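Long-time lurker. I teach an intro course on protein structure, and each term I like to show students one example going from raw sequence to a predicted 3D structure in token notation. This year I'd like something fresh instead of my usual example. Would anyone be willing to generate the tokens for the chain below so I can use it in lecture? Attribution to the forum is fine with me.
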Amino acid sequence: MRLPLAASLLLLLAACRPDQVEHLSNTKELAKEAVNWEVKRIMPADLLRATAWAGDSLTRTAERELRQVLAEKLAAGGVAAALPFCHPEQLPRTDSLAKTLQATLSRVSNRPRNPAHQATLSAAELNPADTARQVARLNQEVFTYQRPLVLNDQLCLRCHGEVGKDIAAADYALIKQQYPQDQATGYQQGQAMGAWRASFARGGVAELWTMKTRKIMKPRKPLF
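-- Reply from a regular --
Happy to contribute to a lecture. Here you go:
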């Protein structure tokens, strides 16, 4: 014979005593993690903000890595040893980060060393203030970033300072031999030499926005 529905429920409740129910102790953490995995709509303003984050991260990585490499090469063999490495966008850590962010990084200047980097930059674009950056969306899939490239390290004066004062005559002869159309001298510390430019695929900035806005759970303190 089939038991009535009410009787069946009574039997189930009797079988589950309170002392046999295992309560989860990390419900707050599970709730936060569930929020992280919710599908969220990323707005256009969010993508532009992520582009600024990505551009700052990429260009600052390039500057740090370049300073480190140039310091090592200048100490080891002077300007002759350092000159081939003055391509920060090609250095290993910078190149690796660019691939992660789905980015292309370049440098431009009104007075470049390499004619391929020639560009016409306005006074506003050469403002050495840290806040002088521009982000834009070219189309649905491409975002752009630009900020001034500032000579912040005295090491750079060895190749970009005043000839005869900061740059030895022999070193300048070597620079002119490799770059006959060089214009990138006469700078002072703190002066903008040009601008960093980067382009990012939408996927790269969207992934960065997702990762940076995830809620990070603080580790729980032990009770004892």
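Some talking points for your students: Residues 30-37 have pLDDT under 50 and may be disordered. The chain has one domain: 44-212.
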